[in-house]
Specification:
Layout (H helix, E strand, L loop, with lengths): L1 E4 L3 E6 L6 E6 L1 H11 L4 E4 L2 E2 L2 H12 L2 E2 L5 E2 L4 E6 L9 E5 L23 E5 L8 H12 L4 E5 L10 H11 L5 E5 H7 L9 H7 L3 E5 L4 E6 L3 E6 L11 H15 L6 H5 L3 H19 L9 H8 L1
Length: 314
């Protein structure tokens, strides 16, 4: 099983006529959990969910797609809300306005964490706003570090600059995470915020020396690059599709990466990640790119099901 740790929120997406918003389940961590479930991968969610109407909507959304909620207690309080501003042609990343003060997922503390996790959990995923907003950020950072010696750790920072109060502090925390992360996924926008004016190639050797096994850089409509210890460096062009919007595209991409690695038995040991061949890495990125492309043909975060991926393959 893969457990996704972090936020579950409601995205308010503009209606097609631009006169209002519709509430949709969202949050990068939730999206990745749902994407894994739809691809047939055993997956759980670790956070807190509100007992309010939005929390109930989120719980039903995850359960419908097979996400295990045993490590996700329901508590009284509010759900994080996000309003989304979209560019119609998908050429600019969506912009978000978050309302998270006092939200139950943001306010998770170390005392809320389970003392021990099931040994069948092969990997744990972290990232996004849950690694920024306190006190939850320190809680999930503690969990990431605690579990890093026991199982594969993946991270997608999914940076939202508007929520980061001090860029230099965030950069320092990100650098520290690299000592505990096995699989790192970044968008070009993420990397440019964390390392303005730099190139990712200049950091790979340092990250690999710290223990990172796999680095993936997504470059929007251009495609994606994959890097492994030992010099593997591959590129896969993005499929050409008619884009409705790009909300959740990166999450659909990375859920497919993790699903590919799980299905091909690459998550049972850390050395299995660094032992991927260039061909396997290309196959992984190609699978992930297809998932992201399907998501972009639909409104909002809507990752594909396994049968949809297979229909395109055939």
């Amino acid at each position: 099983m893969i457990v996704c740790c972090g936020e579950a929120l409601i995205d308010f997406i503009p209606t097609p006529d631009g006169t209002g918003y519709r509430p949709c389940p969202g949050g990068s961590i939730l999206n990745i959990a749902v994407g894994l479930g739809r691809l047939g991968t055993p997956v759980g969610f670790l956070s807190r969910l509100s007992t309010d109407i939005f929390g109930t909507q989120l719980a039903k959304h995850m359960l419908k797609d097979g996400v295990n909620l045993d490590t996700c207690p329901r508590v009284e309080g509010q759900t994080t809300l996000a309003f989304v501003s979209l560019n119609q042609d998908g050429s600019v990343e969506p912009q978000y306005a978050f309302y998270a003060t006092g939200a139950v997922d943001r306010d998770i503390t170390i005392s809320d964490l389970p003392d021990a996790l099931d040994e069948t959990i092969q990997a744990m995923h972290f990232g996004s706003i849950s690694m920024v907003l306190e006190p939850g950020a320190s809680t999930f950072e503690h969990l990431l570090q605690r579990e890093s010696e026991k199982r594969i750790i993946s991270l997608d920072p999914n940076v939202r600059p508007g929520l980061i109060q001090d860029q230099s502090v965030y950069q320092e925390r990100f650098a520290n995470w690299m000592h505990f992360v096995d699989i790192l996924k970044l968008s070009q926008a993420d990397f440019s915020y964390i390392y303005p004016g730099k190139k990712i190639d200049n950091f790979l050797e340092e990250w690999f020396a710290q223990g990172v096994r796999m680095v993936i850089l997504t470059e929007g409509s251009k495609g994606s690059r994959g890097f492994l210890q030992g010099g593997v460096d591959v590129f896969i062009a993005a499929p050409r599709v008619t884009v409705k919007d790009t909300v959740g595209a990166g999450d659909s991409f990375f859920s497919a990466v993790l699903a590919y690695l799980y299905t091909n038995q690459k998550l049972h040991a850390k050395d299995s990640i660094s032992g991927l061949t260039a061909g396997e890495t290309k196959e992984c990125l190609r699978f992930a790119s297809k998932a992201a492309a399907i998501n972009c043909t639909r409104e909002g975060a809507d990752p594909p099901y396994r049968h949809e991926m297979e229909e395109i393959e055939s």
